[in-house]
Amino acid sequence: MTEHSNIRKLLCDQNLGLLPHIDRWLKDIQTQLGDKQENFRLDAYDLEFGECQTHVTPNDVKPIVTQLVSMRFPLIGPIKDKFKLLMLAAEFQNSLDAGIIDWSTRERSQYDNKPLRRPISTITGKLDCESLGEPTNSCRITIYRDFELTYAASF
Length: 155
Fold this sequence. Notes:
The structure is a single chain. The chain has one domain. α2 packs antiparallel against α3. 34% of the residues lie in helices and 35% in strands. The protein is an alpha+beta fold and 155 residues long. β2 and β3 form a beta hairpin. The model has no long low-confidence stretch (mean pLDDT 87). Strands 1, 2, 3, 4, 5 and 6 form a six-stranded antiparallel sheet that branches.
């Protein structure tokens, strides 16, 4: 395989990919947190692939793949500031969703439907809160985001 796969392009390409886009966005968020960074910390995010469906339509040359992508973003802060942490996580979640949808719309139009076949229109997930033993008196809010990438299979 000499050419990168479409899923690799969509996620990892420095110009096209979602992950470099999210990394740049997270750096901006860290900067915006500024003096709040002493109290709140955004840890490294995690990515998993879920259900994957491949189908063929009469109009397509290659099969179409729909891949579920799950991302988790942990935000840690003092338990006494749990409400502030939840509000920050909700704002972060809304901004993240807008960024992902914006990326998919821009990517699809900029690259003439290749490799992304359909823009992301729905993102689901939740916020989960848990108390932590270390650091003492802290809690972690995990922001879960799930969405589908639909792209042409590449061989």
